[in-house]
Write a structure and sequence with these properties.
Structural class: alpha/beta
CATH topology of the largest domain: Glycerate kinase, domain 2
Strand order of the largest sheet: 3-4-5-6-9-10
Helix content: 25-40%
Shape: elongated
Oligomer: single chain
Number of strands: 13
CATH class of the largest domain: Alpha Beta
Length: about 375
């Protein structure tokens, strides 16, 4: 019996990864019910990371933390023995902004530190920070403060929340925060390789997505640069090098803060693919369907569909992609995927925020794949 692995990421704004996989599977099975389908909902460090981890060995626990604008929020974390996975988007994500009002200058990552404290109280030996989808651009300052770091103004009072607060920074002491994580394996799972500062830095590239104006971006980048300068003045000798490191700009600079605490960056996509046993599933598949909301140049930097495609190639398995939209030139997409179906090519309607329409179109993509795989015209299959 032919075997298909459907392993997508979420379609942000419309469908979870599991909903994407179900919709494609519905279309495949309606057209070719003899196909054996395995669904694997995936993540690469952004929203849905806890849910993806819990498809494997992990289970969900909840913790009350400080949200991005200072309010208390209840966040899920994934726990497997002495390993705890914290999804940054579930703690200080864009979706947690009250009434959707952006706060690019003042949103804080303090709640990440609270979640880490929860993990440490449970004697965690490994803490995985799944980095993506946050409302913050504070360089992880809030995280550091909640773990005991001193980030103070010239008068000795703590700096204010968010990236804006870093403009007033005068005194830095990371001793207590670093001691809190001594002996802990801190894993920084991310799908981006941006540095902290400059034209490819976290403020310039991701600030506008969080509501930052051009002036806000300049203010945030300058404040983050001030953070690095004062770290160097406080004898954090590796601060400048870490600020330039790939992944330092992940999640508004949480990658940088994690590195300051001794964390190691890894590919979020590869972390979840390994965690969920993707290679064993690929070895049994005749073809694979993957995808995400937008296939674009950022996808080529190691986002989930491309990471999965690379593994599939090692097994000699064809890979087909579905996407909300695809802006990759055909020749570049063809380096990774045998075919790409974009929902924007199937409708003139805006399906980016319409889960029902997206699911309907993904089912159509599944039927198209069944026809393509079987070498049959759609009218030879079970459904049109």
């Amino acid at each position: 019996m032919p075997s298909v692995l459907i392993a997508p990421d979420k379609f942000k704004g419309s469908l979870t990864a599991d909903e994407v996989a179900r919709a494609v599977a519905d279309g495949l099975l309606a057209a070719a019910p003899h196909i054996r389908v395995t669904r694997l909902a995936l993540a690469d460090g952004g929203e849905g990371s806890v849910a993806a981890a819990c498809k494997g060995r992990f289970h969900v626990e909840t913790v009350t933390v400080t949200g991005p604008t200072g309010e208390a929020v209840t966040a899920p974390v994934a726990v497997d023995g002495r390993t705890v996975l914290i999804e940054a988007a579930a703690v200080c994500g864009l979706g947690l902004l009250p009434e959707g009002r952006s706060a690019p200058l003042t949103a804080t990552s303090r709640g990440i530190g609270h979640a880490i404290q929860y993990a440490l109280a449970g004697e965690a030996e490994t803490i995985v920070l799944a980095l993506g989808g946050v409302a913050t651009t504070d360089g992880g300052a809030g995280l550091l403060q909640s773990l005991g770091a001193v980030l103070a103004r010239e008068d000795g009072t703590p700096i204010g929340p968010g990236g804006r607060g870093l403009a007033d920074l005068h005194t830095v002491d990371l001793t207590e925060a670093r001691a809190a994580l001594a002996g802990v394996d801190l894993v920084l799972a991310t799908d981006v390789d941006n540095p902290l500062l400059g034209p490819r830095g976290t403020a310039a590239v991701y600030g506008p997505q969080k509501g930052a104006s051009e002036q806000d971006v300049e203010e945030l980048d300058a404040a983050l640069a001030n953070f690095v300068r004062h770290l160097k003045a406080a004898d954090v000798t590796d601060a400048a090098g870490l600020a330039h490191a790939a992944g330092a700009g992940a999640a508004g600079g949480l990658g940088f803060a994690g590195m300051l605490l001794g964390g190691r960056v890894c590919s979020g996509a590869d972390y979840f693919l390994t965690l969920l046993g993707a290679d064993a599933l690929l070895a049994e598949a005749d073809f694979v369907v993957t995808g995400e909301g937008s296939l674009d140049e950022q996808s080529l930097a190691g986002k989930l569909p491309v990471a999965l495609a690379r593994r599939a190639r090692r097994h000699g398995v064809p890979v087909h992609a579905v996407a909300g939209r695809c802006t990759l030139p055909p020749e570049r997409a063809a380096l990774h995927f045998d075919s790409v179906q974009a929902l924007t090519d199937l409708t003139d309607l805006d399906c980016a925020q319409d889960g029902a329409l997206s699911a309907q179109l993904l089912a159509r993509c599944g039927r198209n794949l069944a026809a393509q795989w079987a070498g049959l015209a759609p009218d030879r299959l079970n459904v049109p």
